[in-house]
Amino acid sequence: MTKTANKGEWSEIYVLLKLLGEKKLYAGDGELNKIEDLFYPILKVLRQEQTNYYEYTLEDDLVIVSGNGEELLRKSVADFLNQANSLLEIIRKSKGVFDVPEIELFMSEIHCNKIKASSQQKKDITIVIHDLRTGMTPMLGFSIKSQLGGNSTLFNAGKTTNFTFTITGYDFSDAEIEAVNSINTSSKIKDRTTKIKELGGTFKFKMMDDAICRNNFILIDSYLPHIMSRILVESNQSSMKNLKELTEIISKQNPLNYDTTYNQRFYEHKVKNFLVATALGMVPHTPWNGEYQANGGYLVVKEDGDVLCYHFYDRNLFEDYLYCNTKLETASSSRYEFGKLYKNKEGELCFKLNLQVRFK
Predict the structure, then answer these.
(1) Around 187, how many Cα atoms within 13 Å sit in the side-chain half-sphere?
(2) Radius of gyration of the chain (CA)
(3) Is the pTM above the cut of 0.85?
(4) Alpha helices (H) along 159-210
(5) What letter does residue 161 receive in the DSSP assignment?
(6) Burial level of 279, CB count in 10 A (0-12/13-18/19+)?
(7) Which helix (H) or strand (E) holds 226?
(8) CB-CB neighbours of 240 under 10 Å
(9) Helix, strand, or coil (residue 199)
(10) Range 87-110 average pLDDT
(11) N or C end: fewer C-beta atoms under 10 angstroms in the chain?
C-alpha cells in the first residue's frame, strides 16, 4: 500500500536512514551550527512497528536488522546513506503530501513500515548511543524537528492556554468597549490591546483559565504564570514575537522585583525551564509530574540535511537552541475565545490573551 506523508513526516524516515548511514550524532549550538568535535557514536536504533519490535544494530560498516531476537538481514551503511540522500532531494522538491515509491521499497526491505511515530508521544525515535565522556551506553528517546517542512509548534494553543487579565486604570464606556471589540484588522488582537493601552487601560494578570495547565506551570516555577502573562502582554502591545527578545525586555522591566545586584538571569532561566519542560514532556491539559518522555532531547533536521543533536545531557546547548529559535504566535481568537473586552460576574472588565509557542 502506497504511503503518503508531508515533509515533516518523511523527515522522520530521513533521520533514521541518515543516522544509520553516518553512524554518529553531531551536537549543535544555540544558533544551529554543527559542533564537529562533539558527537555521539550510535550503537543501535530501536523501532516499534505495530505489533513487532525491531533493532537496527551498527557493527563496523554494517547495519544488522533483527526482530524478536532473530537476525533478519544485513546491509551496508552506505545503502542507508544513499537512500537518505535520495529522500532528502525528494523532500526538498515536493509539496503537500506525497509518496516516495523507491524509498518505500527500501523501507519494506528493512522492515520499516511506519513513517511517523504516534502523535501522543513526545519521542519520535529511540537510539542507543555511546557517550564518550562517561563511557555509558544509554537508550534515549528523541523528538525530531525538521526545517524541511513548515515550522512546528512547541506549545500548542487551546482554550486551555488562555490567560485572563483585568483592565484597570481607565473606566471604559460601553461605546469604547464596543469600539475596541469591533477592531477587525489582520492583526486585530495586537491592535485591540494597543487601543486599550492608548485609552489608558492597564493589563493586570488575573489567572490562567485552565487549572491543569496552571498547575503544570507552577510545577515548573511558582512565578511562571506571572512571567508568561507579562511576556504575552508585551508581545501583543508591540510587533515583537521573538521569545528571547521578549524575555530580555521583561527582564529589564523586572516586574517581580528580583534582586539584580549580581546580574543573575532570573527571567531567562525560568523561561528556558518552561521551554525544556514543553519540549520533553509537558502539554497544557494533561497533569504533568515533571517526567520527560523524550529523555534524550531533540534532533533537528536542517535545510541542508544535517541532523543536529541537542542532547539533554548538554542542557545548556539544548536550552539555548530552544530559547534562540522560538517565537510567540497568535492562534485563532474565534476558535479559542480570546481577544475581547467583557465584564465578568464580579463586574470587572476583562480581556483574554492566548499563549502559543512556535519554532522560527
Answers:
(1) 13
(2) 23
(3) yes
(4) 174-181, 188-198
(5) G
(6) buried
(7) helix 224-236
(8) 15
(9) coil
(10) 94
(11) N
